[in-house]
Amino acid sequence: MCGIIGAVAQRNVAPILIEGLKRLEYRGYDSAGVALLQDQEIKRIRTTGRVAALEEAVREQNAHGLTGIAHTRWATHGAPTEGNAHPHVSGGIAVVHNGIIENHEALRAELKQAGFSFTSQTDTEVIAHLINHYFKSCRDLFQATREAVARLQGAYAIGVVCDSMPNKLIAARQGSPLLIGVGVEEHFIASDTSALLPVTQRFIYLEDGDVAELGLTSIVVVDKNGAAVSRAIQQSELRAEMVELGEYRHYMQKEIYEQPRALSDTLQELINGGVQPILFGMEAESILSTIERITFLACGTSYHSALTARYWIEALAGIPCNAEIASEYRYRTSVPDPKALIVTISQSGETADTLSALKHAQSLGHEYTLTICNVSESALVRESRLNMITRAGPEIGVASTKAFTTQLAALFTLALVLAKLRGRLNAVEEQKQIAALRALPGQMQRVLALESRVQRWAERFAEKQHALFLGRGMHYPIALEGALKLKEISYIHAEAYPAGELKHGPLALVDKDMPVIAIAPNDALLEKLKSNLQEVRARGGELYVVLDEDTHIQDMDEIHKITLPLHAGWLSPILHVVPLQMLSYHAALQKGTDVDKPRNLAKSVTVE
Ligand code: G6P
Predict the structure, then answer these.
(1) Up-side HSE of residue 79: CA atoms within 13 Å toward CB?
(2) CA of 404 to the centre of ligand 1 (A)
(3) DSSP 375-408
(4) CB 413 within 8 A of CB 388
(5) Residues 243-277: pLDDT tens digits?
(6) Which residue has the CA at smallest separation from atom 5 of ligand 1?
(7) Closest-CA residue to 49 (of 21, 67, 30, 74)
C-alpha cells in the first residue's frame, strides 16, 4: 500500500527520494509523485504507473531540491490518475498521505465553504487544505499540522513541506506506519526502514498520535496530548543489500530460495537452548501456563499459518484453538474468555485489520496477547505482551513465502513450549522434535532441488483457467495456501478443499480442463486421500500429486507426481508448501505476469 519517503538535507534529495520509492515499490501502488522545494517554490511531478516513469520525468525536468517528499499511491478514494496522485498541494504546502480519512466528506464540505477548491477525488486533499487553512493564521507548519491532524478521523501517516519554510519537514502518524531516519545533519521519513537503508541505519519509530518537526540538526516530537516527548533512536541490523535482488530474477524467487536460511535463523535459539517459554518473552512462562484456550487472528497467508498451528497445538498441547480472519473477528460479537491467549500472526506487523482485531480483543478484556511477527519494531509487536520474531529478513515479494514457513516454525515452537508446560513433552520427545527441526533446512534444500519438475507442471498449468487443490488434516491449510499463491500471481482461479469435501460439491467441477493438485504425505490420512484421488480420476480429472518418498500410491494413468524426502511428521506442511510456491511462481513466469507486484494487490495492507 501507499509508500512515503521524505528528506531534509544539504544535498539534492531527488535521487534519495526516487531510490526510496523504488525500495517501497513492493508495497503495491499504481501512481507515484514527488514534491521538491526548488527556488522557494514547490516543484511537483506526478505520474501513473511505475516509479521508473517518475524518475525519467524528474531527470528530464532537472527537478532538484534540498527538501522534499515523495509517494507511491495505491488507489482507494479516486481512480489511479495523475490528478489523484500525491503529493497534494494547497497554497505552498505539499502533503503525502498513507491511510484513509474517514471524515473527509464533512471536512471537504467545510473547506469548500471556506473557499478552498478541490482538484482531486482523494481524501488526502482535505489534509493539504486543512493545514493551509491553519497555516494562514499561525504561519508555523508544525503548529498548523498539529491543528489539522486533530480534526482527522481514521488512519494516517503524513509528510508535509512548505515553500516558505525550507529545511523543515513535518511528519505525523495515527494507525499507519511512519518512521524517522536519523542522518548527520540530515533527516528523513519513510513508511519502512528498507526505503532508507542506503542513507541511514538509525531510526526513530513514531507512535500513534505523534507529530514531528524535522530540521537539518533537530527533531522535535509531540505526542497525542501535545506534550514534547523524546523517542529513542534505534540502530537497525538491516543492511541495504538485504533488500536487493542480487542474482535472482524476482524477489519471490529469492525469498523461496532463502527459506532454509530463514528457518535456521528462526529456530536457532530453540535448537541451541531447548524448548523454553522465554523464547516468547519474559512473561511467557506465567502467561502460557495460565491460558486455557487460544484464538489466532490473522489475514491472508498468515491466516493459513494459524489454521496449521491449530492442528499442532490441539494435538501436542491439548489446548483448544480457533483461528479467525482478523477482519471478521473485529466486527462480530464474540464471547470473550479471560483465560484465552490472543495470538496475532503477521509478516509486516502493520496489517490494519490484524492490528484492529488485537485492539478489539484488548477492549473486550483480553489481557494475554502474543504476536508472531517478522518486523521487530512493528505496531503488533509493540501492542503485544509476548512475541516471537521470525528471522525471515525483509520480505519484498507480495506473495508471502519465507514469512509463511518461518511463521510455521515459530508456531511449532509455540506448540512444543505449551506441550512442555503441560507435562506433555518428555525429554526424549523434546530431543526428537529438536532433531527434526535441525534437519528441516536440509530437507527443504532437497525440496528446492525439485524445481525443474515443478516447472514442467507449471507449463501445463499456465494454459488453464481454473485449478483445484486438495489436502487433508494439517495439509488442508497448505492446499489453501497453494491456491492463494496461484491466484495471487498467475491470476488462475484456484480453490482449495479438504479432500473429504470433494463429493459435497467441487467434484461437479472436475473434468479434463480442471487440474487437481493433491498433497499426499505419508500420514494417517493417506488411505482416505487415495479414495478421493480415484474419484477424481474416474471423472477424467488430471491429477498432480505431491508425495513423500515413502508414500505408496498405485500407478494410475495420467497421474503426475513430485516426490519429496521421507515423511517429515509434524513438520510436513512446512515442506509440502514449497512445491506449491514454486508452481505458482513458474505459472506466473509462463503467463508473463508481474510476479513481485501482482495487479491490484499490496504487500502491506495498512488500510481496512
Ligand atoms: C497482504 C499480502 C499477503 C499477506 C497479507 C497479510 O494481503 O499480500 O501476502 O499474507 O497481506 O499480511 P501480514 O503482513 O499481516 O502477514
Answers:
(1) 3
(2) 10
(3) -TTSHHHHH-SEEEE-------SSS-SHHHHHHH
(4) yes
(5) 888 899 999 999 999 999 999 999 999 999 999 99
(6) 300
(7) 30
Residue having the nearest C-alpha atom to atom 3 of ligand 1: 300
Beta-strand runs (E) in 315-465: 321-325, 340-346, 368-373, 386-389
Cα angle at 85 between 83 and 88, to 5 degrees?
85
pLDDT at residue 605 in the model: 82
Nearest 10 degrees: Cα torsion 132, 133, 139, 145: -70
What does the alpha-carbon distance between residue 183 and residue 181 come to, in Å, rounded to a whole number? Answer: 6
- Tens-digit pLDDT profile for residues 333-348: 999 999 999 999 999 9
- 400: CA distance to ligand 1 center in Å? 7
Write down the mean pLDDT value for the chain.
94
Active site residue 162: no
Best substitution site from 305, 400, 487, 604 to test ligand 1's pocket, by max atoms within 8 Å of Cβ? 400
Catalytic one among 22, 43, 402, 603? 603
C-alpha cell at 490: 498467475
Cell of 260: 532454509
Q: How far apart are CA 31 and CA 1, in angstroms?
A: 11
Domain annotation for the chain: domains and CATH numbers: 3-243 (3.60.20.10), 251-448 (3.40.50.10490), 451-591 (3.40.50.10490)
The span from the CA of 450 to the CA of 447, in Å, is 5
User: Does the pLDDT at position 555 exceed 70?
Assistant: no
Binding-site residues, ligand 1, Cβ < 6 A:
299-302, 346-348, 351, 354, 398-400, 601, 603, 605
Secondary structure tally for the chain: helices H, strands E: 18, 25
249-280 as b/e: b if 16+ CB within 10 A: ebbbbbbbbbbbebbbbbbeebeeeebebebb
Supply 467's cell numbers: 485449478
Task: Give the separation between CA 125 and CA 170, rounded to whole angstroms.
Answer: 16
All three cell numbers of 426, joined, read 518428555
Q: Which three cell numbers stand for residue 319?
A: 489446548
Q: Which of 3, 25, 98, 53 is nearest to 397 (CA)?
A: 25
Residue 607 has what pLDDT? 73
Cα 80 to Cα 120: distance, rounded to the nearest angstrom: 11
Q: Sign of torsion, CA 132 136 142 143?
A: negative
CA distance from start to end of the chain: 11
Listed in sequence order, the DSSP H helices in 501-571 are: 526-538
Which one-letter amino acid corresponds to residue 283? E
- Residue 60 buriedness (CB in 10 A; 0-12 / 13-18 / 19+): exposed
Q: Are 28 and 74 in contact (CB under 8 A)?
A: yes
Q: Is 2 among the catalytic positions?
A: yes
| Cα 155 to ligand 1 centroid, rounded to whole Å | 18
Distance CA 526, CA 98 (A): 48
Residue 351 CA to ligand 1 center (angstroms) comes to: 7
